[in-house]
Amino acid sequence: MDRLILCSAISSVSSVLPSRRFATALVITLAFAVLARAMRGVTTSGAVAGAGVCFLLYIGAGPGAFAALVLVFALAWASTRIGYRRKQKLGTAERREGRRASQVLANLGVAAVCSALYATRPNPAFLLAMAAALSEAAADTVSSELGQAAGQIPRLITSWRPVPAGTDGGVSLAGTLAGIFAAYLVSVTCWLTGLLQWKWLVVSTGAGVLGMVADSLLGASLERRRVLNNDAVNFLSTLIAGLAAFVSAS
User: Fold this and answer.
1) Which of 29, 63, 80, 175 is geometrically suited to a Cys-Cys bond with 55, CB 3.0 to 4.6 A?
2) Which parts of 62-123 fold into alpha helices (H)?
3) What pLDDT is attached to residue 219?
């Protein structure tokens, strides 16, 4: 479903683009996808999905959105590798070959669609929703990875009882603070590159943090019961962040 939506968005946006802008976006997209694959941040399928996301972000919202995407990727790549040996012992380490297409689309699909919507209907609220979705994607990954690396005992967000590291819905102070900072960094990047007005900086960051909390709640309640898988939880969390930001701008 995510792939169908992404392909449809690319087709719709491409039909209204000047050829020069299309070519620039295509070159940047291919370069980013090749680099991400070479760094083992994504698998081959993940690189293809990431290319689609990158194309839509650049085409719809310009270089600022691409800068935010690069930051999200860098934060995810770095935080995944911090404390990697400890995570391996815990059995929670990400695969070394990188993220699959489903993981890429679950984390970045909402932001890509928001960018495509902005290209066809230039409403600044779509940019705010896009920034919030990207902020949530960074916050979720960083909070999880650095929380595990810090070695603190996580607590289940719904009951506050101690749980093993890597438990769905488990949170820690170190991870939460790191996630908040990651959301802020992505939102600031969107502001510095002209995607957001200053007054929306707090909204974008706050919506990203809200999505991160929603991710933990969904993990503790539905993912642990196998009602949802991790990709579904990540998608819903970015959607919640984007919708919260969009409604705030209305």
Assistant:
1) 29
2) 63-81, 84-90, 101-120
3) 97
Closest CA to 219 of 157, 146, 148, 142: 157
pLDDT at 178: 97
Of 1, 234, 54, nearest to 133 by C-alpha is 234
What gap in Å lies between CA 116 and CA 14, rounded to an integer?
A: 10
Question: What residues contact 33, with CB distance under 8 A and at least 6 apart?
Answer: 47, 48, 50, 51, 54
The answer to whether residue 69 scores a pLDDT higher than 90 is yes
Confidence bin at 73 (pLDDT 50/70/90)? very high
Whole-angstrom distance, CA of residue 115 vs CA of residue 99: 22
Using pLDDT thresholds of 50, 70 and 90, give the confidence band for residue 165: confident
Residue 6 CA to residue 209 CA, distance in Å, equals 25
CA distance 82 to 192: 27
Could you give the CA distance from residue 27 to residue 8 in angstroms, rounded to a whole number? 21
- Between the alpha carbon of residue 69 and those of residues 127, 172, 173, 216, the distances in Å are 13, 26, 26, 23
Count the neighbouring beta carbons within 10 Å of the beta carbon of residue 22. 14
Distances (CA, A) of 85 to 90, 96, 123, 149, 166: 9, 12, 45, 9, 14
Q: Provide the token pair at 192.
A: 């510095």
